[in-house]
Design brief:
The chain has nine helices and 19 strands. The protein is of the alpha/beta class and 437 residues long. It has two domains: 280 residues, TIM Barrel; 108 residues, Sandwich (Immunoglobulin-like), CATH 2.60.40.10. An eight-stranded parallel barrel has the order 4-5-6-7-8-9-10-11. A four-stranded antiparallel sheet has the order 12-14-17-16. Helix 4 runs parallel beside helix 5 and helix 8 packs parallel to helix 9. The longest helix has 28 residues. The protein starts with a helix and ends with a strand. 40% of the residues are buried. The N terminus is likely disordered. Keywords: Hydrolase. InterPro entries: GH, Glyco_hydro_2_cat. GO terms for molecular function: hydrolase activity.
Length: 437
């Protein structure tokens, strides 16, 4: 009798264990949460979603075009917060699911540079309680991939207790949600931050790094600084405004859309694709548009929704082939015969000529738009909101085939922008800072 009971118990245990194994897949198919985990084979890390390998081909997307992201064959996007002011987290996840995309969901964590005090235990606990509610609301959504705890919390901070708070939040999330890994993002990468993460954030599953011009250095630095786990690059793209040459009056010189596109491809190959062991994918910045120093600097889309050349690069990266129609390329752009790197200084109310030369692979007919903006005076850090400068009226005397003659405005600091449209939802763009005095 005892032997029979033992056999029955063993059978019941095996049956329950098998049901448990099946339940994650069955639950997901029925609309339950995806089961996301990190696997390791030898020295190679891999992200698995419901048991299948999932290499992140994604973009940062707050308000951008989700349909276009899916159309270009990405598989994921990241956010910076659960409520972006326009859509709730549920609405974001529902839209992602509609297009077959997964979401690394950002969780807003207060920053010391905005005045938060991580020595204030009450405030830290209140933040944790707020985050708990956000997690409970969406933890079982099928489109959820990874929890991203805060954004660039190491930017201009002094109190390492922020990492204790991050670890505490990660531990809480794992208790509430065993199905999804956690990460936090760093602005750049340094030995100090890796030491803090290794010592104080042992509960994190993944490290996230955000790099721009120096992206190709990431694989080497990851190893040099002693991060031995998996990582992803959660922001990368255009050369940062802090990394470029400036004019004599301090205006950072933005690369034109063709230079940017070339750098996107080069940096992806050197800083992401080059690491096949620890890197589990990336999110390009930004699948949308924003004002940061200029309205064209970081978004791979323009304000009117047109695609820049960098979208075509991402299409190539995600598909292994170029899109059928390519964006117009900037061959050259000068004002008064000078490039943006030659400190263009004009006199007021005089006529000057600008000329852009465009190369279009399909020889599509190009239409041009010109705009003059005052140099942005609202300069923030860390991607904080900036207001777009108001365009000024241009006194145009002649305009034809990429050539513009106009009278210079009143004394001040400005930028002349040109947009080249091929009629297929693509625009090449460039700008030249100039001073009138």
């Amino acid at each position: 009798m005892k032997q029979l009971l033992c056999v029955l118990c063993i059978c019941l245990f095996i049956s329950c264990k098998n049901d448990s194994k099946k339940s994650k897949t069955e639950q997901q198919l029925a609309g339950g949460p995806a089961y996301v985990e990190i696997s390791k084979s030898g020295e190679k890390f891999q992200l698995l979603v419901n048991g299948a390998p999932f290499y992140i081909k994604g973009a940062g997307l707050e308000f951008g075009n989700v349909a276009a992201l899916a159309e270009h064959n990405a598989n994921s996007f990241r956010t910076w917060r659960t409520d972006n002011g326009k859509k709730s987290a549920i609405e974001v996840l529902d839209e992602a699911q509609e297009y077959g995309l997964m979401v690394s969901m950002g969780i807003e964590v207060e920053r010391e540079r905005h005045g938060f005090d991580y020595d204030d235990e009450k405030a830290v606990q209140e933040q944790k309680e707020r985050i708990k509610k956000e997690v409970l609301e969406i933890k079982d959504h099928p489109a959820l991939l990874i929890w991203v705890i805060g954004n660039e919390l190491n930017l201009n901070y002094t109190n390492p207790k922020v990492w204790d708070a991050v670890n505490d939040i990660s531990s809480m999330i794992h208790e509430l949600d065993p199905n999804h890994p956690t990460t936090t993002t760093l602005a750049g990468i340094s030995q100090k931050e890796i030491n803090y993460i290794n010592e104080r954030c042992k509960d994190l599953d993944i490290l996230s790094v955000q790099m721009y011009g120096d992206l190709p250095d990431v694989p080497k630095l990851i190893r040099e600084y002693g991060w031995k786990g998996p990582y992803m690059v959660t922001e990368w793209g255009a050369t940062g405004h802090w990394e470029v040459p400036t004019t004599t009056w301090g205006a950072p010189i933005e690369e034109n859309s063709t230079l940017k596109a070339g750098n996107y491809l080069k940096r992806y190959k050197g800083g992401i694709a080059a690491d096949t062991l620890q890197c589990i994918g990336s999110y390009v910045f930004l699948w949308g548009n924003k004002q940061e120093r200029t309205p064209t600097w970081y978004g791979v889309f323009l304000e009117n929704g047109k695609e820049t050349e960098s979208v075509g690069v991402m299409h190539f990266i995600w598909n292994g082939k170029w899109p059928e129609n390519r964006t117009p390329q900037i061959a050259s752009f000068v004002l008064k015969g000078n490039t943006a790197y030659e400190n263009v200084i004009l006199e007021p109310a005089k006529e000057y000529t600008a000329q852009v030369v465009i190369k279009d692979i399909e020889n599509d007919p190009i239409t041009y738009k010109w705009e003059v903006l005052p140099e942005s005076e609202e300069v923030k850090e860390g991607g904080d909101h900036e207001a777009r400068p108001k365009a000024i009226t241009i006194d145009i005397t002649e305009e034809k085939d990429g050539m513009l003659k106009f009278k210079s405005p009143a004394p001040g600091k400005y930028r002349l922008f040109v947009y080249a449209d091929d009629g297929f939802n693509h625009e090449g763009t460039a700008n030249i800072p100039f001073m009138v005095k």
